[in-house]
Each structure stands twice: as structure tokens, then as C-alpha cells.
Design a protein that fits this description.
The chain is an alpha/beta fold and 413 residues long. It folds into 3 domains: 187 residues, FAD/NAD(P)-binding domain; 133 residues, FAD/NAD(P)-binding domain (3-Layer(bba) Sandwich), CATH 3.50.50.60; 78 residues, Immunoglobulin-like. The chain contains 8 helices and 25 strands. A hairpin with a 6-residue loop joins strand 12 and strand 13. The termini are far apart.
Amino acid sequence: MKQIDLVIIGGGPAGMSAALAAYEQGVTNLLILERDSRLGGILRQCIHNGFGLHRFGEELTGPEYAWRYEEKVLEKKIPYLLDTMVLDISPEKVITATNTSLGVFQIQAKAVILAMGCRERPAGALALAGDRPSGIFSAGTAQKYVNMKSYLPGKNVVILGSGDIGLIMARRMTLEGAKVHAVCELMPYSGGLARNIEQCLNDFGIPLKLSHTVVKIHGKGRLEGVTIAKVDENRRPIPESFEYIPCDTLLLSVGLIPENELSKTAQVELSPITNGATVDQNRQTSTEGIFACGNVLHVHDLVDYVSEEAEIAGNAAAAYLRGALQSNLHIPLSTDGKIRYTVPQTITEEKEITVYFRVSDIFRNATVKVLDGDRVIYSRKKQKVAPGEMESILLKPVQFAGAKALKFTLEVE
């Protein structure tokens, strides 16, 4: 069994950024395992711009952003295996993988970074009434067909879900000559970035129907249309609002799920809110020596934040291998419901910590507070917070010194 100090599972922006950070910290015996035929992850099919504004101070397309990291991986000769599927990770960090050249093989790692990304929620999870004709795609699959295969999935389109990929595909399908009749969103707010609503829908006159869903699929061999309806406050369709829209294509943008099957085999504790691992500020999971970053940890809205988080994991994994990773505290973080979750979920070290969080609804004139019991250790007013935009705050050691637990709350005027 081959012995490797650090193995990174996933060669997307998170995996490459984590590998580069660890390499810069002196870890040279490392390996990236990637199941696709190229490094770059999902960014290879994201040909629109808007990436890299925070990280590089310029607008890049997805492939350009990925190449910035791939180029450094190649330059530093960081080893990687492509077309390699990881089958299992044990709590002892034994990795079982397979590819066509090596067959099934095992690696004993001293540390592991999980960077497997996420997948789209499928149509089967929605229990839509009607048959299962062709013409129903996840938004990401349609994006791959259009941007990488040069196939147009259809000409008359309805999109269910207003996540960022759904909004981006509304624009992309329009630019390719299709007619996007509507983007329907079950919630009373969009799950996407405000800039994507403006640039992908409003600029093209595509209606966004909030508090709407698809209630029936029409068609046998090929999709012929969908019936949509407005929903009430309990998200139940209102019969009087049923509307039939003829279409040959339905794109689903109904959520992303972190790819955590391998995390489960490694006995990593998962959050019921994010479906990703629970981690400390170093992105170390509940299984010692296993770290997580990127969309496998929690779904990010900007890839710039993925790279930033992956650097934290890469630096921490390098410190772990040196025996220099501090863990002298255990302060759990909880939320009040208005704030859905935080990352990290635990503080284990006295140092400056950026805590990322998402809210459960759109709130205006809100105050974010962090409480140590009844003591307010942090307070900041926010004009507006929304589920589609990740928020963050910086906590200093002097603020949480002596705390047993911290609670993140949102007070609305």
C-alpha cells in the first residue's frame, strides 16, 4: 500500500487551491485524485464571466478561473491522477480508489482533504405528477449539453427553481435562441444572487414567478407542457391559480447536495442543515486528520470563497502533518433559526476566525448578534440579508475568551 502524506479528493477549484496551499507550507508528498478526465471541476462548463472579482480583482470565465489554479499545479509539478474514482475512505485514512491503468488500489494517507463538490437534486426527489417524457433536465446537465457538447436541449423552456445555475441557464438558453417562458420559484424569494436576477432575467425580460411551482408534467414521449400554480404560505398549490404553459423543455434548479458519501465511510459527522461535514475553524472534521472545504462542506455562491476556504484547509492540513495544529478549546456555535447555519460549527483555537453564515429568509433592518450566554460579544447592523448571499463576520480571541458556547442570532426591527 502506497504511503502518501496528504491526499486531496477532488481536482476542482477547492481541491487545487487546498493542494497549492499545503505545497506552499512544505508538503511535497501529496496527491490529487480526480474522477473526471481533466482538472477544473464544474468550472469547465461555466463559460459565463463573473468569477474571480474577489480573488484576482478581474472578471474571468469559469474555465479561465480554473486554469489560474491548474497552471500553478502544473508549474509546481503537484502530482494528480485523473479518471480516478475514490470508492472508500476509512477513519484510519486508508483510501480505496480505481482507474483503468491501476485497477483497484489503496493509499495510506496521513491527512486527507475532502473537496468532492456537490451534485444537483434530481427530478425524482420532487415527485412531480405526470409521466416522465424526455425534455426534463437538471440545469447543470443542460449547461453541459449547451456549453461543452453544443447541443440545444429544447426551444421552449420553463425553469423550476431560481438558484444561480437556473438563472444563468435562463440567459444562456435565450442567447442560443430558445424562448424561456418563466422561472418558477417555490419560495417567496429567489435563491440566487441579486446580480444574476438582474443580468440573467430582468435584462432579457424573463418573468420570475415567486411562490410558484410546477404541479403537473404533460406529454408522453416528449414534454408538451407544464401546469404551474401559485402556492400559499404552506407551499400548497392554489387550484384557482393553475396555468398551463406549452413547452418542450423543463430545467430543474432545485438545490445542490454536497457529495458526502465518502465522508460517511470515513465516519465524519455531518450537519443536518448543510448536509456537509461539521468542522472547526481549520476545516478539520470530527475525524482527526480529515479536512473538508468547498461545496462538499456547504454550498457557496462565489467560487472565490471556495478558494479562500480551501486555503484554510490546505494550511491546516500542513500544520497537522507538522504536529503544529492547535486544539485547546471547544466552543460550539449554534443559531436561532433566522440564521440557518454557521461554518465553522466549533471553535477550537484562540485566533481570529471568520464565521460564514446564511439566513433563512429575506430580512431588512436586521442586527446580527453573537451571544455568550446573555453577554453580547458582537453586534452589527445589516440593511438587508438574503438566503442567496452568504454573510460573514470576523471574531477576535478577546471576544470569545472564556466562552462555553456561542449563539448567532438575527434581530429584525
